[in-house]
Amino acid sequence: MEATLQLTIDCADPQRLVAFWSEALGYVPEPPPGGHATWRDYWAAAGLLEEELPPGAGEAPESIVDPAGRGPRIWFQQVPEAKATKNRVHLDLKVGGGRDVPLTVRTQRVTATVERVTRVGATVLRIMNEPGIDHYAVVLRDPEGNEFCVA
């Protein structure tokens, strides 16, 4: 049996995170399968009972996919509780190009991405730019407070 990877992110507002992370990652909202108008329609056709779904679930896309098919599917699962502590897992957006690329170029690439994601709702937490270290990264929060890095 082949295993696939799906990343699931608990959240309060799936549509808000679908919009944010689609922009941040270059992903697209995942359309419902099989010609169904909504995911909720698809789930109903698959036998899920209405009472198993929270109000509004599946009316708009709650997952995103890599249009090139390389990255994992990301599902934003609506949960009732708010984020309470630091993430134990986070995403790294690796845009710098690695250590073969000059630090000045990596810094420019990271800065451009940080500017783009802050325009759509990210908040900068800290810049990782220690003198004498060949590394530049920025730690941010998405619109619901989930931490991620751009490096």
Question: What spatial order of strands do you see in the largest sheet?
Answer: 1-4-3-2
Helix content: 10-25%
Structural class: alpha/beta
Low-confidence stretches: none
Shape: elongated
The multimeric state of the shown protein is single chain
Distance between the termini: 35 Å
Strand elements, count: 8
Please write the string of helix (H) and strand (E) elements.
EHEHEEEHEEE
The major β-sheet equals:
4 strands, mixed
Q: Would you tell me the overall average pLDDT? A: 92
Strand content range: 15-25%
Please report the number of helical segments: 3
Radius of gyration over all CA atoms, rounded: 18 Å
What does this 3D model show about the protein?
- The protein is an alpha/beta fold and 151 residues long.
- The protein has 3 helices and 8 strands.
- Strands 1-4-3-2 form a 4-stranded mixed sheet, with helices on one face.
- A hairpin with an 8-residue loop joins strand 6 and strand 7.
Write the layout of secondary structure elements.
Elements: E1 6-11, H1 14-25, E2 28-29, H2 39-45, E3 63-65, E4 73-78, E5 91-93, H3 103-119, E6 123-128, E7 137-141, E8 147-150
Parallel strand pairs: 1-4, 5-8
Antiparallel strand pairs: 2-3, 3-4, 6-7, 7-8
Structural key phrases:
151 residues, alpha/beta, four-stranded mixed β-sheet, 3 helices, 8 strands
Tell me briefly what this model is.
The chain is of the alpha/beta class. The chain contains three helices and eight strands.
